[in-house]
Design a protein that fits this description.
The structure holds two protein chains of two kinds. By secondary structure, chain A is mainly alpha-helical. Chain A is built from three helices and two strands. Chain A has a two-stranded antiparallel sheet. The two termini of chain A are 21 Å apart.
Chain lengths: 100, 521
Amino acid sequence: MNAHFQPPSAPSDPERDRRYWRANLRLLVLLLAAWFTVSCGLSILLAPLLNQVRWAGVPLGFWFAQQGSIYVFVVLIAIYARAMDRLDSDYPAERDDSQR
Amino acid sequence: MSLLHWTYLIVGGSFALYIGIALWTRVRSTAGFYVAGRDVPALVNGMATGADWMSAASFLSMAGMIAMAGYAGAVYLMGWTGGYVLLALLLAPYLRKYGKYTVPGFVGDRYYSDTARLVAVVCAIFIGFTYVAGQMRGVGVVFARFLEVPVQQGVLIGTAVVMLYATLGGMRGVTYTQVAQYLVLIVAYLIPAVAISWKITGNPVPQLGIAGAVTEGPGAGQPLLATLDAIHRDLGFAEYTAAFARGSRGMADVLCSTLALMIGTAGLPHVIIRFYTVKSVRAARWSAMWALVCIALLYTTAPAVAAFARYNLIQTVDGTAYAQAPEWFRKWEDSGLIAWVDKDGDGRIDYRAGAAFRDKPQFTGERGPHGQRLVSNPPSASANELYIDNDIMVLANPEIAGLPNWVIALVASGGLAAALSTAAGLLLDRFVRPGLLPLGTLVARLSTDPARVLNLPGGSLSPGAPGDVTILDLDRELTVDPTRFFSKGRNTPFAGWRLRGQNALTIVGGRIVWDRERPTP
């Protein structure tokens, strides 16, 4: 699928495109792993176990399921947006600021 | 000035305002029309997405659902927010990068296929029609009412006005309308939530309040959730925070439902389209974050409200003598959504795990020794004496928490719009038919009396009076269906009720404006 997402405006450099795309994929895998760990892992699969731990009277499994996971989702997207900003400034040719 | 003049002035004035906004934000290019010129700031786009999302999920009912489900309520909380991570990482930037105006445009180019584009167009048109049909009918009724024309004409005039508005303002006009909608919704939701949190935990931030300590009552100084769990244990319920307790959803159920909702959320067309309206790929990424921030504000408040509601409900009701039961308790009992069976004969309400009796309560019409409404359902073996309909948690929460009247009024005003959709059927079926209210009295209460109190013309059939008449069909059966309400408020405790008696014909100023036999398009 990646071939179609390369910006047509940049002068072609397959090696650079590949590095940019791999950095992008690495970031996605990392963030999606965190997403899965918090939502399905801490909040569901491990919830009975984490519920044994109470912090100031709040069972952790319950807190992750109803509060913490949502905060983590916001933080994950913020990290993604920031990291992509950085990646784009490292690879100026790959950036797409067009107003198409 | 007469009422009619006022109506023209106010309706005309608000139309002038709308057209003014449309002219102010009017578009001059193709990109301007479809995607608001691609210059919607990320935060503004986030708020507009939030409004899209919050009207899709009935935002009031969520807290009630969670209060009854406890831990398992997380299915909806995570399901409807976690999808935004998928949307932000896997969809939004790429859709924006491709630079098309619409999803079919993207599909066609991405797969090098006009057939794929055509399929996407057909899907989009079907989805569009489904959404628009209900809305346009509502618009038609409003115009018919204010311009005193038949509904069909009202729909045509309404369509023309909406088209004019959309053509002038395009996506930009729509975006700023949604920003206003988001602000209204979130303020309406946060005011009661902050008030309840403050009252129970002394912390005005509901998200901190849920992790805070109770300030008064038997558990004073103890953490709220620990107190709630202890109360649940004492009464024989599974702990409020316990995961996968007996009788609630299992792990596989919660896991699969959550994943299904997350993936579905990532694919909603009216959310995806919003990411075409931002400046760049970079803005699409930040916009997804702001959208989730706006949504998270609501979705982290709801579980706090749910825990407060659950705590309040048990505290105010359990162990209370029926004679001392709070006013809301009797009120909802009168409407059939609460029932109490005094199994141990001590005159106190015992709220325990398990159903008080099978099925919905069948009221006999008689009153017991304490004044309670008796039911014919045989009592169950459980010690529980209380039947509570889930919908009460939604509508009665501010009352249960003992909030000031103006907050209750604020919440009630939302429910009122939905109430108008069911008034005639309910009153005829539940009051007139059992003989609680003579038909003549009902008619007077709904027409002559309000007219007299408000000093309005009408409400009588004498010569010279306005020709406003409603004809009722006392035998026609109707099932209450919230999806067909004119109002956007879909919360009703009466959904699915079969009611006998409904309006047949409405005549305003001598003209038929609504006819059951000729339903509007």
